[in-house]
Amino acid sequence: MKLLKSKGQHILVDKKYLYKIVRYADLSYNDVVLEVGCGLGNLTRLLLRSVKKVYGIEIDSRFCKILREKFADEIESGRFVLIEGDALKVDFPKFDKFVANIPYQISSPLTFKLLKHDFKLAVVTYQKEFAERLVAREGSKKYGRLSVVAKAYCRAEILDIIPPKAFRPRPKVESAIVRIFPEPEVVVENKEIFEDLVRFAFSRRRKKFGKIVEEWCKERGYKAEVPEEYRDKRPEEIPAKVYAKIADEVA
Ligand SMILES: C[S@@+](CC[C@H](N)C(=O)[O-])C[C@H]1O[C@@H](n2cnc3c(N)ncnc32)[C@H](O)[C@@H]1O
């Protein structure tokens, strides 16, 4: 079968990492797991050994056919429910834990879709670069819009790096296993205004934060004060809690 790069079809074949992903998810039998991108079912099989129910979403009908054959008994008993479709378009079922080795090209929209759901824990394999941006803190080279916005929804940590040789075919990049807790690091009253400010600031990276907020307020008809210590800093030096405070001030 020809695997499609455009659909991120890199199969994780090194069992060591599959076991790690499952271990990090701290599964108990009563958990209901959602897996996006089941592929050939390597991770699905381990999940089905650990929990009472797994929902899988897979876009490729060729994989779906194989999955239906491989897991015929689990489908029959209702322990595995396969949803054929695009994870960005189909409604997510109710689940406790999200465990997936996702297609990297949909990392951002899929993560924000996930974060709008109610769940206990997620263990997700991302491209390492994306994972580093997701968990980055102010002052770090990787800190940007994604890092700030994510902190209004969750706490995330990188647990392991997976080398390209663990996959077939090998991707060009390293991957990272990330654990996500749905506990916001910063509390934001109005996420829409917060995200607008963050977007506005990071599209003016070379300007000072004081000027950026002044411009933003002028364009939107808001009033806000930037604390003195942050006025001369650049967007990538501003902690998420400062973005949150300014957004809440105008909300
Ligand atoms: C990185 S592979 C992971 C395969 C397998 N779970 C593993 O651990 O090796 C990503 C999988 O996501 C599927 N996929 C790609 N885009 C998708 C989408 N929008 N919705 C659902 N599945 C998608 C691909 O067909 C592929 O099976």
UniProtKB/TrEMBL annotation:
Signal peptide residue numbers: none
InterPro entries reported for this sequence: KsgA/Erm, rRNA_Ade_diMease-like_C, rRNA_Ade_Mease_Trfase_CS, rRNA_Ade_methylase_Trfase_N, rRNA_adenine_dimethylase, SAM-dependent_MTases_sf
Gene3D superfamilies the record matches: Ribosomal RNA adenine dimethylase-like, domain 2 (1.10.8.100), Vaccinia Virus protein VP39 (3.40.50.150)
Pfam families per record: RrnaAD
Binding sites annotated in the UniProt record for S-adenosyl-L-methionine: 10, 12, 37, 58, 86, 101
Localization of this protein: Cytoplasm
Keywords, ordered alphabetically: Cytoplasm, Methyltransferase, RNA-binding, rRNA processing, S-adenosyl-L-methionine, Transferase
UniProt EC number: 2.1.1.-
GO-annotated cellular components: cytoplasm
Domain Ribosomal RNA adenine methylase transferase N-terminal: 17-184
Top-level division of the source organism's lineage: Archaea
Gene Ontology molecular function, alphabetical: RNA binding; rRNA (adenine-N6,N6-)-dimethyltransferase activity
Annotated family: Belongs to the class I-like SAM-binding methyltransferase superfamily. rRNA adenine N(6)-methyltransferase family. RsmA subfamily.
Name under which the protein is recorded: Probable ribosomal RNA small subunit methyltransferase A
The organism of origin for this protein: Archaeoglobus profundus (strain DSM 5631 / JCM 9629 / NBRC 100127 / Av18)
Gene that specifies this protein: rsmA
